[in-house]
Every structure is written in C-alpha cells, then in structure tokens.
Amino acid sequence: MAGGLALRLASAAVGMPIIIAAILIGGPLFAALLALSLAIALGEIAVIVKLERRSVLFLTAVAAIGAIIGVSTQADLPLLWPILAAGLGIAAVTTLAAVITVPEPDPVQLRPLLNNGLAMLGATAYLAIPGATFVAVRAAEQGTDWMLLAVLAVMSTDAAAYAGGRLLGRRQLAPSVSPNKTMEGAVFGWLGGFGATIALDQILNLDTEIWPLALLALVLPIASQIGDLAESLFKRAMDVKDSSNLIPGHGGVLDRLDSLLFGLPVVFFFLQWTT
C-alpha cells in the first residue's frame, strides 16, 4: 500500500504542474494538450478492443477528435458540424473497409469490422464531446479559475475516495464493476469533493452565489465518481485492470480522464445556468 501510494504521489508531483501550467496558459496550447491526451486515451481504448492503431479507422477517429476540439475553440462555429462529420466519417470508413476487405457475405469477418466501427464511434463521442466542454469552460469568464476548481475538486474527490476506501472501506460499492471500490470510500470522496469545491470558490474568489455553488458542490463529486465507475465498467467488461501502464501508479491517460469527462460537463452546464 505504501509503495503504491508513493508511486501515485510521485506521478502526481510530475503531472500536476504540467496540468496547471496548461490551464493557466490556455489558448491553443491548452486545446492541443487536451486533444493529445484524448488521442492517447483513444489509443488505449483501441488496444483494449484489439484494433490496430495504424488502421484507417483509428486514424479517422483521431482526426475526428482533433476536429471536434479544434472547432470547440472557435465560439462562432457550431460544434454540431464536426460531431456529425465525425460520426459519418467513422461509419463510412467502417462500411468501405467491409466492402473492400470481405468479398463474401461472411458474418465471422464482418462482425469484427462492425464492432470496431461502433467501438471507435462510441469512444470518439465519449472522449471528444465532454472534451469540448473543457475548452468551453476555459474560455468562459473567469475560465482559468473555473477550470482549476473543476480539476482540483475532481482530483480531491478521487484522492479522498482512495484514502477513505483504504483506511475504512468495508462494504463494496459496485462489486460487479469495481470490487475495490467501497461505500465508505465513495462517501469520503463526496465529502472531499464537496469541501474542495466550497474551499476553491473562496480561494479563487469566483463570482457565484452560495446556493448555486452548494448545488455544484453536491453534484460535481457524484458525477466524477460516476465517471470513474463508467470507465471501470468498460474495463471490467473487457477484462483489463488499467487502460495502460503509461502513468506509474495511476494506469493510463484514460484512467486519469474518466472522472473529468463526467465532471467538466457538470461545470459547463452550471456556468450556462448561472451566467
């Protein structure tokens, strides 16, 4: 336990300054690092579903993520266009691959192609659409501070859940999806996220009223934990422990993004509601 915790802390000590610097700088650098992170996470999904990362289908999905994040940086362009183009592009590549590579009506050969196409379509939507909210939150009024609040509150939720589960965890939260998660850990995670949201609002001097903020503090840690469980469901169904071993002590990029992919949209909708 001590060795694993030390490794997690060492990785966080390296990664956190990079994340905070990207948030503070914003602009094209923030969007580029976000797109790169999402593309790496897509690559981890491709490996899990056994799709060749040099395939046209995977490269199309990477391009789709780049297009969605790129358009999300332009406030005057409708995001629906690249999302629609991404879906049609992945569907078209899947169909053409089936037509070109399978000469006979053979379900044994066609089914994997269809499964890969659906996997990349779902993964692109899962990563890029919430990813677009990262850009939108950063571009909002006081966007730097809201991004810091979102990221740090979600990380606080994860850290408190991990610590609470290790110290006091007894009852399993979701044994079919993630046997190591406990109800005690989930409660500690929610308390950590709630407290971090309230504290960060005061530290960052954000322009929001107490009751909307209390609602955000209530919902944000719940959403981030659901995001964690959603990725655990995928990994459990595919019989893998971590999305990769890229980040020592943490797993892969997808393992680090899972909670944020559910948490940032909550902050985005909160800002839409309150501003």
Q: Which strand order do you get reading across the main beta sheet?
A: 1-2
Structural category: mainly alpha
Report Rg.
20 Å
Major pleated sheet? 2 strands, antiparallel
Report the β-strand fraction as a percent range: under 5%
Order of helices and strands: HHHHHHEEHHH
Approximate shape: globular
Mean pLDDT: 91
Walk me through the topology.
Elements: H1 2-25, H2 27-48, H3 56-72, H4 80-101, H5 107-139, H6 143-168, E1 172-174, E2 178-182, H7 183-204, H8 210-238, H9 253-274
Protein described:
The chain has 2 domains: 25-139, no CATH class; 141-275, no CATH class. The chain has 9 helices and 2 strands; from the N terminus they run H-H-H-H-H-H-E-E-H-H-H. It has helices at 2-25, 27-48, 56-72, 80-101, 107-139, 143-168, 183-204, 210-238, 253-274, and strands at residues 172-174, 178-182. A two-stranded antiparallel sheet has the order 1-2. Helix 6 (143-168) runs antiparallel to helix 7 and helix 8 runs antiparallel to helix 9 (253-274). It is globular and about 65 Å long. The model has no long low-confidence stretch (mean pLDDT 91).
